[in-house]
Amino acid sequence: MLDTPCLVIDLPVVDENIARFQNLADTAGLKTRPHIKTHKLPFFAKRQIEAGAIGITCQKIGEAEVMVEGGLRDILLTYNVIGDAKLDRLAALARKCTLSVTCDNLTVAKGLSARFADEENELTVLVECDTGAGRCGVQSPTDAAELASRINELPGLRFGGLMTYPPMDHAENVDKWLSDAKQRLEDAGLPCPVVSTGGTPNLDALPAFNHATEHRAGTYIYNDRSLIARGACGVENCAAVVKTTVVSRPTKTRAIIDAGSKALSSDLLGLEGFGMVREAPDASIVGLSEEHGIIELGDSDWDPAVGDVISIIPNHICVVTNLFPTVWIKDQNGEMMEMPVAARGMLR
Amino acid sequence: MLDTPCLVIDLPVVDENIARFQNLADTAGLKTRPHIKTHKLPFFAKRQIEAGAIGITCQKIGEAEVMVEGGLRDILLTYNVIGDAKLDRLAALARKCTLSVTCDNLTVAKGLSARFADEENELTVLVECDTGAGRCGVQSPTDAAELASRINELPGLRFGGLMTYPPMDHAENVDKWLSDAKQRLEDAGLPCPVVSTGGTPNLDALPAFNHATEHRAGTYIYNDRSLIARGACGVENCAAVVKTTVVSRPTKTRAIIDAGSKALSSDLLGLEGFGMVREAPDASIVGLSEEHGIIELGDSDWDPAVGDVISIIPNHICVVTNLFPTVWIKDQNGEMMEMPVAARGMLR
């Protein structure tokens, strides 16, 4: 009997999810480069590589350090790296693995160059493109080609391609953007060996990314309630649940669980409620304090008792794995193995 | 130069905040029992004791274990403790400090009794009361007296008083509720040595808690944007900021920082935006992905450059301290000391 709250991962479901992404990408003629932010475990990163991935994606240097330590050897770090402390760690990493990074502005490129000019090997730098998601990224194909050209001129750096996190449901626009940028790079005589797209919500759109060479996805390995809501998976494809105990039944219609925002996070991702109760999908997790979740039972026949252990599919699993020091991995025989979440809490 | 994102605590402001709570409680004739969930550090818990607190409040056994290890000796654990694993740890804790717990139902009370019946000392159990906050707690003064009576009859347990987390702006109703419950306890011949209220948002209401004996508050030690919004403090009373670097300026009106939901959390607490930029309070942190914050500058004259380090006052500081492995404490001379957040991530 596991003590609660705890995070339990269904290994057979993980393996199915890994195979599904790889198959979708294979069919679309894309390589895969899974984002490790969802699991934060070398154990699963290696499984993704064994299934056919060409490498992994990390967003923090601390994550990449853990992955290299765990035996991974090809890493794309999708982040603007700034400052001496991080640049020194980046240079040390680059000596230990095949490393590429992204960049969307000249200040960052110059910082990378200053640090890598005297390194034995050039650092491969991809240009991050804002194809509509409104996060980081250069704003136009012209800007992408301009920055690529500047990167290529800077000592210690080699332009390596384009990277974008495409907005959902705009695959054709994104592909047009990338096509335009590639044309401008070609006009400038710059080879563009990699065009990296991303996102689990975009998995069904892979065939539309004609100009991409690889796809980064993270959440698909576990899936979550937000992906169920988007039609990207079913309940049966969710590999991760938070096990939690009913600690109070203050009223006939209210149950309190020992999973609050410290276990489920406050991420709503546009949904109502803070997770799905597997035992009663119609019940609503209407509120979270740090250590308690408040479930309104509504018209549900479900009548949990104090002490009952239930399973919650979180809204957003990636932030949940960041909250648990360990996960329990359940294999096909029901055997449980506890594993520290090695790259948890890597903020830098 | 600190690497970002990081959490920096201003020690003189902390000391002012500790003194203020103690003074407010002294004036109202209440003892203080600070909740350590905000700082999660024995270092600050001891400072609260030195300032006059009679003990501390924890919500998880893991937090209490860290505090006992750190030298704290009087702990109220405001949680329904369930299950053998936790009960064994609770019994071990009770041998090392003055421990009391709360409970709002008979199932929990019976579990506590079964474990403590053979211990040398009885466990003190307070009845948690739902005085309107809609979380845990018995629903009426009659139910409180009934559960208190049952607790007192159970082997190994001693009824110790009443505990509630009062809703904001209802101090008089709460005091009436507690007064009624105390009367029923008196009618039943049950002494009620402790009546514990809580909440930083209720600090101005302390004089209205005539039937309370002690108050638990946590957030007051650091304060945050939610408390500024409620008028409970000013910007100058906020002791904790997240230092973050501007990593991208994709457009004239958008800046991207290296603090996302893994640093600031997604807690909104009813506010718009995910924190206050100290350098530009009119700028809006409109979105967070896990590793990036998106700031819309709007009409602000503020024009941060890539590489600039800025300070964010989080919406909800308690969940933020749970996300950072260490904090930097800045003393009155500007000297910085890095300290592990010892009771971080204690989910059980």
UniProtKB/TrEMBL annotation, chains A, B:
Q: Which residues form the D-serine dehydratase-like domain?
A: 239-331
Listed GO MF terms: D-serine ammonia-lyase activity
The record's section on InterPro entries has: Ala_racemase_N, D-amino_acid_metab_enzyme, D-ser_dehydrat-like_dom, D-ser_dehydrat-like_sf, PLP-binding_barrel
Q: Which Pfam families match?
A: Ala_racemase_N, D-ser_dehydrat
Annotated GO biological process = D-serine catabolic process
SMART domains xrefs: D-ser_dehydrat
Q: Which UniProt keywords apply?
A: Lyase
List membrane-spanning regions. none
**Family the UniProt entry places it in:** Belongs to the DSD1 family.
Q: What is this protein called?
A: Alanine racemase
Organism whose genome encodes this protein: Thalassospira tepidiphila MCCC 1A03514
